[in-house]
């Protein structure tokens, strides 16, 4: 009995078989490579950061001063304002300075001196706007103008006064007493503009005018 041996296949047939087998497993290999690539991409991508919560700035002082004096000067080095107080608290959210027992001296461009005192004050950053609370007094000292005319001493008294040192303006929504020289006025509200020389008194207004010295009797 004789055995039949399979015919020996040539190189072309073997290459064709290899290509056929590769075509069967190629989709599986591609899917595996794609899965590995996706996994690597997910691992390499940074996780999204949580949204930063913007917290509102709290109204708290960032520094204190005790028995202090602050001075501001103009571009030529001339003194404009002096602020004294027993204690000061600066609030960064509003850039304001709260002052206990304030005493403020302001010198205008014309040389007029204004002094303000109160139990408590609230000033903006450069001291050009000051709110005075409790026994508030603003006094503009007398001065002589270029023409030799003397401006009499003027004083405002109230439980609240709002002073604008740059524009030389004083106003109040509370009862106020105004003294100009020897004359005196009272009103429920007041708005005084020194630059325009305009006085507005509202509510119950009363005035007492004293005769000038040297006037005929």
* Estimated share of beta-strand residues: 35-45%
Q: Give the rounded overall mean pLDDT.
A: 80
Question: Helix content range of the residues, please?
Answer: 10-25%
Distance between the termini: 169 Å
Low confidence ranges: none
What is the subunit organization of this protein? Answer: single chain
Written as H for each helix and E for each strand, in order along the chain, the element string is HEEEEEEEEEEEEEEEE
Q: Strand sequence of the main sheet, in spatial order? A: 2-3-6-7-5-4
Q: List the total number of helices.
A: 1
Gyration radius from CA atoms, angstroms: 43 Å
Sheet having the most strands: 6 strands, antiparallel, barrel
Question: What report would you give on this structure?
Answer:
The protein is an alpha+beta fold. 15% of the residues are buried. The termini are far apart. 16% of the residues lie in helices and 45% in strands. It has a 6-stranded antiparallel barrel. A two-stranded antiparallel sheet has the order 8-9. The mean pLDDT is 80. The protein is elongated, with a radius of gyration of 43 Å. Strand 6 and strand 7 form a beta hairpin.
């Amino acid at each position: 009995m004789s055995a039949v041996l399979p015919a020996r296949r040539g190189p072309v047939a073997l290459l064709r078989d290899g290509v056929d087998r590769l075509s069967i497993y190629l989709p599986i290999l591609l899917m595996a490579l794609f899965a590995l690539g996706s996994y690597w991409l997910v691992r390499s991508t940074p996780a999204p950061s949580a949204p930063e919560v913007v917290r509102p700035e709290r109204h708290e002082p960032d520094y204190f001063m005790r028995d202090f004096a602050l001075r501001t000067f103009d571009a030529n080095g001339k003194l404009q304002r002096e602020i004294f107080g027993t204690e000061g608290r600066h609030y960064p959210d509003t850039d304001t300075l709260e002052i206990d027992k304030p005493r403020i001296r302001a010198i205008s461009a014309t040389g007029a001196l204004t002094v303000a005192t109160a139990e408590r004050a609230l000033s903006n950053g450069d001291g050009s706007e000051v709110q005075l609370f409790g026994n508030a007094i603003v006094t503009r000292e007398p001065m002589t103008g270029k023409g030799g005319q003397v401006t009499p001493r003027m004083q405002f008294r109230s439980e609240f006064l709002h002073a604008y040192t740059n524009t030389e303006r004083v106003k109040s929504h509370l009862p106020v007493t105004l003294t100009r020289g020897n004359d005196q006025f009272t009103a429920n509200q007041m708005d005084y503009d020194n630059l325009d020389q305009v006085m507005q008194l509202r509510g119950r207004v009363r005035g007492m005018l004293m005769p000038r010295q040297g006037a005929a009797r």
